[in-house]
Write a structure and sequence with these properties.
Blueprint: H1 5-28, H2 33-55, H3 59-86, H4 89-99, H5 108-115, H6 118-135, H7 138-144, H8 150-158, H9 161-174, H10 181-186, H11 189-206, H12 216-244, H13 249-258, H14 266-274, H15 278-306
């Protein structure tokens, strides 16, 4: 059985960060846009680089990363034309981007550390890396296309340092390069900073939202994809793997957890950087995060029964 109390620690911590961001916007008039730029171009790449180097990538682990990258990309590509039929270009771009990702890091990782043994956490981390890679490549392109041309969108992706951080981490591991301990120790501050600023941006954005910007139809669309489509996808992935391969309990639970986390905070970060309706993204992220303690235990228990765990 999944204990709902295991989710309360991560939830209240994230909501506290959102509250700090709201206070910063309302009382200190802080502009979140430079913070979004800092996250995308500095903090995220260094966090990603550190995690990949410390994880000790193997071909099996990288296969998980590639599989989740492909799955996230295919979902976003499939949702994009559907979203364009019901929403304006900017809203549809945000919805399409969010459809391929979730709060697998800020929220999902602390939960994974409670529910999974160390081997399961490692499997979860490499799945998470695939989704993060999607966010800053295919997802970023789809978001940019809500406002920019194909050439401009591709140019923005080429400038993203996270791609180069991924290649550099693979080179370091592949060539067996030992980085200085002082360097790796200095990078330990970035994961916590990434989480803090990423969630504070949601609060900063909400602090500037008026009631006229509340879009129930958009929120329903985001919730339907996150808590409707993704649990089914994670269930199908585990069932298909069980047909072809012996799937460990740790891998099955890691995949199921990826399918039931709330919307990604990076939806707001990317929307802020590109100027495509970050306010609507922030409201949808907050709605799915508040629903998480009720829905995740229900979903996980049901999905675990269906896959025989």
């Amino acid at each position: 059985m999944i204990d709902p109390s295991a989710l309360m620690g991560p939830l209240w911590t994230l909501l506290a960060f959102v509250g700090l961001g709201w206070i910063a916007a309302r009382r200190l008039a802080i502009d979140p846009r430079p913070i979004a730029t800092l996250l995308i171009y500095l903090i995220a790449p260094l966090t990603f680089f550190r995690g990949l180097v410390l994880g000790g990538p193997t071909p099996q682990y990288l296969l998980l990363t590639a599989a989740l990258f492909c799955l996230a990309s295919l979902v976003a590509i499939a949702v994009n034309p559907i979203a364009r039929r019901f929403f304006a270009p900017q809203e549809s771009a945000v919805l399409a981007f969010s459809s391929g990702t979730g709060n697998t890091g800020y929220f999902g990782l602390p939960v994974a550390m409670v529910l999974l043994p160390p081997e399961g956490v490692t499997l979860y981390l490499f799945c998470l890396l695939g989704i993060t890679l999607y966010e800053f490549t295919v997802g970023f392109y789809i978001s940019a296309r809500g406002q920019f041309s194909v050439r401009e969108s591709l140019a923005k992706i080429v400038r993203l340092p996270l791609i180069y951080a991924f290649v550099a981490a693979l080179a370091v591991s592949g060539f067996g390069i030992d980085l200085p301990d002082a360097l790796m120790d200095s990078l330990t501050v970035f994961p916590a900073t990434y989480t803090l600023l990423g969630m504070m941006i949601i609060g900063m954005t909400l602090g500037r939202v008026t009631i006229r910007e509340f879009d129930l139809r958009f929120i329903i669309g985001c919730v339907a994809v996150r808590y409707g489509l993704w649990p089914l996808l994670s269930l199908a992935a585990v069932l298909l793997l069980q047909v072809w391969l012996p799937v460990s309990t740790e891998l099955a639970l890691a995949l199921l957890l990826l399918g039931v986390v709330p919307m990604a905070a990076n939806v707001v970060v990317v929307a802020m950087e590109l100027g495509i309706k970050p306010e609507k993204g922030a409201m949808a992220v907050l709605a799915t995060t508040l629903a998480a303690p009720l829905l995740i235990p229900f979903y996980l228990q049901g999905l675990m029964r269906l896959v025989g765990l």
